[in-house]
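Quick one, T. Sequence first:
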Amino acid sequence: MLLCAVVLTIASATSVDYGGDLVPVRREVYGNGRIIDITHRYTPDMPNWGSTDGLGQFVRLAASMKNGSRANNSEMKLGVHSGTHVDAPGHFFDHYFDAGFDADTLDLELLNGPALLVDVPRDKNITAEVMTYLNIPRGVRRVIFRTLNTDRRLMWKKEFDSSFVGFMADGAKWLLENTDIKLIGTDYLSAAAYVESPPTHRLFLQSREIILVEALKLEDVELGVYNLHCLPLRLLGSEASPARCILIR
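Structure tokens:
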């Protein structure tokens, strides 16, 4: 009887109340605004390169408790350049891809550290003229460029929009020759403007010293210096990887 009483007491103490409303909290800022999530949430309606139909259904519940499985287990099928992601050198250089310069080789020290958020003039791609105007000082290694893409909320629109703002080749060349920037963050699916995407990417990635962080969520983020933390997945053999990126004041 004593044993039964002990068992009943433990069961009562450890029981879980599943009553009430179960409403998950989804946040963009944490710690009273000290931590800002600049990663886009993955949804079927987010834009996908070259597609009018968006990303589509990328997660499926392969095993379901409702169907008798012991646990819920989902599977994901997703392009590595979807949503907020980083590019590795193998993206536009086949010999780098074959040699293994993949997402797993990207420098975590460069992906984490002080970063400057700047506003690009809203009527322009990022050209040499724009880079001269921004006047980013030597010594700054990580810069996030907020453009008209954020104002137009392009990452919230299902259909891919090739008119997005990005770097032109002359802007990339100016950056390489006149700044110490090694991490470039932008606010659509490509850091390079659509009309000059291959040559601009090649300029950035040729040295294997530049990391491109693309499709960042920059609405309502104040300009200035933050600590950036960006962690891609360790995808062996992949020229890019989705990443979770945050800013800390």
